[in-house]
């Protein structure tokens, strides 16, 4: 594995305050949250947002809105068909991640990603797609970063990604990592560097100190360092997309 399977740290973190301003639609039977830029200066480019295990919850929707604020039409499909981990379960610690994850393997998730890409290209008229993957979603960025599906990729504290996934990418990939992370460990990060170096693609791994797995989407906004690190992770994605998309 290039990053370990989701574990308890994937179901921890803080809820962020704010009111999402995007719209919820049903795309081929899949609930999908869409953030539309007020001034769409990148009309032929868009971001596919592949979420952590909480799916269409507030933190992710607010991040979608931020990508839209930076000029990118952004699409967040429900990868779990309403079977996501609930924030109540997170608060109560009533989560069996190894059991839950059995229902959300590539056979279940790949078709949702594929139909969302098709919708973006054929219905929305998007010519180039960047994809962001937080935790769980990162693996599916790698899996679709080839064959003209996704053009540019970004991972934040990935989970579940295999070396085969990384070795097969056919486009630029940027990764943002946490110093304290039992899922994307120091050893696995270094192994990923070796794998990526053999792909012939542009790649980048940034490491942020003093933060834990999940910080880029569920960090504590009241902690100045965590807030700063979350902002840096977002800026890394935007800079990567602006460069390669």
Quick tags:
alpha/beta; 9 helices; about 20% strand; Dienelactone hydrolase domain-containing protein; AB_hydrolase_fold; hydrolase activity; Dienelactn_hydro
Describe what this molecule looks like in 3D.
By secondary structure, the protein is of the alpha/beta class. It has one domain: Rossmann fold, CATH 3.40.50.1820. It has helices spanning 58-69, 87-92, 97-101, 106-122, 138-144, 163-167, 186-197, 215-218, 224-244, and strands at 23-27, 30-35, 45-50, 73-77, 128-134, 152-156, 173-180, 203-212. The protein has an eight-stranded mixed β-sheet with strand order 1-2-4-3-5-6-7-8, sandwiched between helices. Strand 3, helix 1 (58-69) and strand 4 form a beta-alpha-beta unit. The longest helix has 21 residues, at 224-244. 46% of the residues are buried. Residues 31-245 form the Dienelactone hydrolase domain. It comes from Penicillium angulare.
């Amino acid at each position: 594995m290039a990053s370990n399977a989701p574990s308890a740290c994937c179901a921890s973190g803080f809820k962020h305050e704010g009111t999402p301003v995007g719209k919820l639609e049903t795309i081929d039977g899949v609930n999908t949250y869409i953030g539309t830029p007020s001034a769409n200066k990148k009309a032929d480019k868009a971001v596919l947002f592949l979420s952590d295990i909480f799916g269409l919850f507030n933190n992710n929707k607010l991040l979608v809105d931020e990508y839209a604020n930076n000029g990118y039409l952004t699409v967040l499909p429900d990868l779990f068909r309403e079977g996501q981990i609930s924030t109540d379960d997170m608060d109560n610690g009533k989560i069996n991640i190894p059991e839950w994850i059995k229902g959300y393997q590539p056979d279940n998730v790949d078709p949702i990603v594929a139909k969302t890409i098709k919708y973006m290209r054929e219905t929305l008229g998007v010519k180039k797609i960047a994809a962001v993957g937080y935790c769980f979603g990162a693996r599916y960025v790698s899996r679709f970063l080839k064959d003209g599906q996704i053009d540019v990729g970004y991972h934040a504290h990935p989970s579940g990604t295999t070396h085969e996934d990384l070795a097969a990418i056919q486009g630029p990939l940027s990764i943002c990592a946490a110093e304290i992370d039992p899922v994307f460990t120091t050893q696995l990060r270094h192994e990923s560097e070796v794998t990526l170096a053999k792909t012939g693609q542009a790649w980048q791994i940034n490491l942020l100190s003093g933060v834990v797995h999940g910080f880029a989407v569920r960090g504590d906004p009241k902690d100045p360092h965590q807030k700063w690190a979350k902002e840096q992770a977002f800026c890394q994605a935007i800079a990567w997309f602006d460069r390669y998309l």
